[in-house]
Write a structure and sequence with these properties.
The protein starts with 10 loop residues before the first helix and ends with a helix. It has an eight-stranded mixed beta sheet. It has a single domain, classed as Glutaredoxin. With 199 residues, the chain is α+β, with helices and mostly antiparallel strands. The protein contains seven helices and eight strands, in the order ααβββαβαβαβαββα.
Length: 199
């Protein structure tokens, strides 16, 4: 089964990635997992302004949190016992592997259960995986959740807000790429480094 939607090898996308399209194509062409709207977002789209509460109890707007950073973002919820622990382990390994190679890289886990996932729950969830200092967890305001999920999942949101994709946001705060479900750690690192190289 191939990737739905737009192909990854259009010339404009090669330009967007500054010559790194070959690396990104390799990273996101796992046919068994590519059932979501995976690929480069062309043109990049600004992440909606969303009020977030972080695991340390602080608050921030999504735009303030994302701007000036290279961000890998996932959707999760702390009471999940199926895919979310896999997603947490994935980010923990990727953050550790990347280390301080990219000074402005960050990892962000966003809860889709903001009514129950308070800062204490988010902090405990992170602690299960031995988080990197640049890995954060946050919950959006409940009224803003649906719009944020629709944006991230594009035209194929489906009835379930959960997904095992990773969303990549550039330093301008724009969504630039959606991964397939459960991308491997080397894939995450290649994409983050490729996005850094084109900045």
């Amino acid at each position: 089964m191939g990737l739905p939607g737009r192909p990854l090898n259009r010339p404009s996308r090669r330009e967007l990635l500054g010559g790194s399209a070959a690396v990104l194509l390799e990273a996101f062409t796992s046919p068994a997992r590519a059932h979501n709207d995976a690929g480069v977002v062309d043109p990049p789209q600004p992440v909606p302004a969303t009020a977030l509460t972080l695991h340390d109890g602080s608050t921030a707007s999504s735009r303030a949190l994302l701007r000036g950073k290279l961000t890998a973002m996932q959707l999760m919820f702390t009471s999940c016992r199926a895919s979310c622990p896999i997603q947490g382990a994935l980010f923990a390994k990727a953050a550790k592997a990347l280390g301080d190679t990219l000074k402005d890289a960050q990892w962000l886990s966003l809860s889709i259960d903001p009514a129950r996932d308070d800062p204490v729950s988010l902090r405990r969830w992170l602690e299960r995986f031995g988080p990197h200092p640049r890995w954060r967890a946050a919950r959006p305001e409940p009224k803003q959740l649906a719009a944020l999920v629709r944006f991230l999942k594009s035209e194929r949101p489906g009835p379930d807000p959960h997904t095992a994709q990773v969303y990549f946001v550039g330093r301008t705060g724009d969504l630039v790429m959606r991964s397939v479900d459960f991308p491997a750690v080397p894939e995450l690192l290649r994409v983050m480094k490729s996005l850094n190289a084109r900045a």
